[in-house]
Amino acid sequence: MDFKIQLPADFSPEERAERARNNFLNGYNCCQSVLLAFSDLLESQVSAELLSVIGSGFGGGMARLREVCGSFSGAVAMAGFISPPTTLRSRRPAPLTTPSCRKWPPNSRNSTAAA
């Protein structure tokens, strides 16, 4: 199965952020909100309900420990769909996730932006 999603030509990060905001205001946690903001692009691979279940453990940071932001976890998950690894049995991160995700959040000790 091909899990790679194609972003539409008129893709707007601001519009996706607004969707995520509305999801959050409607009771979803941060991770669920981000995942569900992209559910229309994933509907052939996974349902919105399953995305909600997957994101449920990342609200308030992992296990509500407030360490890793749930919205960041959702964004990293989406990066994996936008640029998936060449093989599912790879321990190496997908091409897009490493350089993109290391830049954000800027205060992360592993962040290239913080260096």
In short:
This protein is 45% helix and 0% strand. With 115 residues, the chain is mostly helical.
What does the largest sheet look like? none
The share of residues in extended strands comes to under 5%
Low-confidence spans: 108-115
Mean pLDDT: 80
Q: What is the strand tally?
A: 0
Task: Walk me through what this model shows.
This protein is an all-alpha fold. 45% of the residues lie in helices and 0% in strands. The chain is built from six helices and no strands. The protein has helices spanning 13-25, 30-37, 39-42, 48-55, 70-82, 97-102. Helix 1 crosses helix 2 (30-37) and helix 2 (30-37) runs antiparallel to helix 4. The protein is globular. The N and C termini lie far apart (39 Å).
Give short descriptive properties of this protein.
disordered C terminus, about 120 residues, mainly alpha, single chain
Annotate the secondary structure layout:
Layout: H1 13-25, H2 30-37, H3 39-42, H4 48-55, H5 70-82, H6 97-102
